Amino acid sequence: MSKTFSMGGVHPHDNKISANIAIEPFPLPAIAAISLAQHIGAPATPVVQKGDFVRVGQLIGKATGFVSANVHASVSGTVKSVEPFVDATGALSMTIFIETQGDEWIEGIDRSSQIVSNITLPGPEIIKKITECGIVGLGGATFPTHVKLSPPPGKKATCLILNGAECEPFLTSDYRIMVEFGEEVLTGARLMMRALDVQKCYVGIEENKPQAIQKMVDLSKRFLGTEVVVLKKKYPQGGEKQLIDAIIKRQTPSLGLPVDVGAVVQNVGTALAVYEAVQKNKPLIDKVITVTGFQLNEQRNFRVRIGTPLSQLIDAVGGIPENTAKLVLGGPMMGKSIAHQEAPVAKASSALLFLSEKETKRHSEGPCIRCAKCVEVCPMRLECYLLYKLGKANRYEELEQNRIYDCIECGCCMYGCPANIPLLDMVRLKKGEVLKIMKNR
Predict the structure, then answer these.
(1) Same domain, yes or no, for 260 and 315?
(2) Which helix (H) or strand (E) segment is 354 a member of?
């Protein structure tokens, strides 16, 4: 029987229309724009300057603290400039522009397809390698992986959970990674298990991915301590706290971390990146990205170099169809409209979604009738209608008392609201302000 989390959730149609499209390598960009702030934490500091020649895999941005991540060249060529640039979210960040010249890689990176399954490094050396290669969480949060694998003093993980749920509609990159790179993913899991010194790994996969489930079940027989857990198709099944609840039935405390209940959660894409970093000496220089939408003539799953302009992905599927109203980076529930088409692919990028006017049209906001449907579907059991009213009135103390900081911004409240109230918009805005107040205090 499929497992699921205990509170809230919704059932949007999964729309996995690109699920059967194999991953294909994407052409190199003429100019790569590589942001130094594509992870949670302090931006990296540039270690190259205009006129320098760099090779693929070369360090170009050095982490500036523990919660930070190295950044590497995804193409070879000449550094054109190091200057601020607006990313896909509209944020301004220091960016290194590299004019591509050939495809020359640094020495030591194993580019062969041969799987290296023999693990020789001890845990601390594995973490060191992950740190050097700039690996971050590829499920969307981009939390530096070496930080997750280094729990605070006094806290100990008892298991690793691999997140293969991919509950967001339309996205299929994780699914294709499991189908095409399953052994590499589980080898990456073994590396993280050694780094954490745990003996158990759960792989959570939603039931709408039967090919991935079968592949991972077959492979797990060769990986001691690994168990595939079939999950109910339910959003947001892939949220860290929801995944922990579904698989090991433990509730992560408010403002707590997964390791507080003995779990460390990593995305399957992260596991692949860890494998490539430790076993192949390959830094995080590319991403699998789904390009999808009902109005597109063809769906694609590309492996794209970091820094590639989104406009190149758009051109690869024949341009923007006339009935497209919005381009979203990510899925329809948690994704954000892109700021401009020349914004670059980043480590956080998972999909480029084309949505029509019908799919994006917002209906007129009606009065709240206190039906509590937003409360019913909230996976964090927040009183979303109350947070909305408190937010409109700028009552920050009461917002904090009502745990606005626990919102995971999944959008279930807006999805289930019969009055079409923009609950998430208000909560997302005021949550940021409350967190600033708490941090300053």
Answers:
(1) yes
(2) strand 351-356
Query: What span, in angstroms and rounded, lies between the C-alpha atoms of 416 and 305?
Result: 37
Gap between the Cα atoms of 299 and 289, Å rounded? 11
Q: What is the pLDDT of residue 382?
A: 96
Q: Residue 140 region, left (φ>0) first, then alpha (ψ -120 to 50), else beta?
A: left
Residue 106 has pLDDT above 90, yes or no: yes
Count how many domains the chain has. 3
C-alpha 89/C-alpha 329 separation (Å) is 8
Whether residues 139 and 13 fall in one domain: yes
From CA 294, how far away is CA 298, in angstroms rounded? 9
Tell which of 314, 335, 361 closes a domain.
Answer: 361
| Distance from C-alpha of 151 to C-alpha of 187, rounded to nearest angstrom | 21
Judge whether 195 lies within some domain: yes
pLDDT computed for residue 416 by the predictor: 86
Strand-strand pairing, 92-100 and 324-329: unpaired
* Beta carbons of 180 and 22 less than 8 angstroms apart: yes
> Any idea which residue has 């690994």 for tokens?
226
- Give the residue from 337, 361, 385 where a domain finishes: 361
Residue 314's pLDDT is: 97
Residues 77 and 169 in one domain: no
DSSP letter for 67, please: S
Following DSSP, what letter does each residue of 247-271 receive, concatenated? HH--PPPTT--GGGGTEEEEEHHHH
From residue 19, how far is each of 86, 182, 211, 226, 299 by CA, in Å?
31, 15, 10, 25, 9
Taking alpha carbons only, the member of 181, 212, 173 closest to residue 203 is 212
Token pair of 255 as six digits: 């403002």
Is the confidence at residue 32, as pLDDT, over 90? yes
Give the model confidence (pLDDT) of 121-166 as tens digits: 999 999 999 999 999 999 878 999 999 999 999 999 999 999 999 9
Contact 399, 390 (CB under 8 A): yes
Which residue range(s) make up the domain with 396?
Answer: 373-440
